[in-house]
Protein 1
Amino acid sequence: MNRPIFFISSTIYDFCDLRSAIKYFLEEQGCKVLASEYNDFRKPLDVHSYQACLESIHQADYFILLVGFRVGGWYDKKNRISITQREYQEAYKLHLAGNLKVINFVRSDIWNLREDRTELEKYLDTLELDEEISHSITHHQTKKIADPEFIINFINEIGRNRDAKAALKGGGEFPTGNWLHVFSSFREIIDVLQPEVFDGAPIEEAVIKRLLLSELREIIRKCLSKFKKGAVYSPTLTIHGFYYEHEIGDEISEDHYTVVKTKRWDSLSTFSIWLLGVNINPLILKKSLSSSAFLKFNHENGAFEEEPVYSALHALHNEIQSLNKANTLETLEVVFEHTPRRRYREAEEIEIRTMELMALLHLLQRWSNVIEISKAIILYLEGNEFVMPEIFNKSPIPSMNEKLENEAVTQEELNDFINES
């Protein structure tokens, strides 16, 4: 997965701390940030620093512009074009070509000054003043800003005011990339970048979901049985078919046997052979359980809550652990004990030791559950609504499942215990 690349454009001295904070935030999200004052910014010795900056913009996916009190260095002093303005103009060309997204920020103090000067200019126009005097009053410098005229004109350029006015008069299309985000704190900048760039989620979470998708697809690929080209199967239907034909009682002892139909047993045991040597060791699944990728913030109670898919991830993790633990030669030995070569070919039924059969069915159910839960999560990660699939219970014996469920501590019981005085 390619990392998004950001170029930060501004005067450096009055934005030094903010540039550093933005760079740190974006890099923590897994992005690459181009900021000319840092050593990781490429500085070719055979090119002027201004030209190097302009060329670097072409590498970026996003262009962040910060407008403050200073003009900065002049790129073209005669025509009053600063290097920051020239960088913006280069970025906007790339934006129009569909190669770059431009995100503009203006300090609230500067924005308010511009608004005040605009109103002042309108008022002075009502007075019979010399045009030169009116201009000098409107653009008089302050302690904070040495060249108000340039900054105000630059903000108007970024807002594409002329283009918008022309479009209103039918002289072209309305401009794009002209949003001006007024800010007074770092938090306000992050609030803009987060949904704009990451759809409201940090890139780390997006990466985890993408890697998890690949990992789950690989898990299913390892678990499916392939008997011929283009024909892959899950054991789920075969297991359901077994339970449809056979009723498993709760009488289990060392010398107890269960009568199984031969055809169904052969189908079941054929699937079982595919489990030889299968071991699943998911890395991303474990990481996703400890990340915030599948948590959502509840604004009503001010707390993070698990998304429905989170419980499925947790269940999948447990099923994989149980599958790996149960998938032993000892469990599969019953398959080799009852192959066609070891019985009468005409036999329509065979007797299998119940405890060995239960161990095999437990293994197969874990196998089926891993496939079905993984499939449901994959569909969710691909943009579908999450639906928890029907999966097999812990035990092949129905009455045992009810007993296990009754013995398990419920959430309500847990809450009552914790809150006891």
Protein 2
Amino acid sequence: MSAPLPDRYQQLLVEIRAEIPGFRVIKKSQSPLHRAIHTALIAITFGRMRGYLSDYQTTIRKTVYVTDDWDDLDSDQRYVTMRHERIHLRQFRRFTTPVMAVLYLLVPLPMGMSYFRAHFEKAAYAESIRAAAELWGRGHVESESYRERLIGQFTGPAYGWMWPFRQNLETWYDSVLATLQVRVGKNA
């Protein structure tokens, strides 16, 4: 009798640990830094970003900080999210923590027109789109609700209104869809 295969999320964690020595996953609420960031985000977004601790996973350096409900989320959802976060882990490795911090948070503006934040997030959200399409089919990522939720991340308060150019985002999204090679998943 053979041992059961690990689920794709657990397999992804094995791959990330091999690629990024020192990789770890920590609950965001256990971090004083992230509790402080949460409070600061509420202030600088005039109360519009209140879900930092409860709704968003965050990567800094080799650590992915997750919400308290992370372990209760469906394994496939954690897989899609961790594929996104793996892109950020690679970005931190490539650019270093100080360079990532300056580019992500400040260049050219901290809010409203944050070119590098949008650039880094486009790469990570493109991976989210690919992973979601692999699991749930192309129709899932082509749906208006999925598209709106994702584009809203760029144009709304979650990331400080990082990129207000909706047409640019629509074009980017369509370019990601055009590259999909979906062979597996529901509605494929």
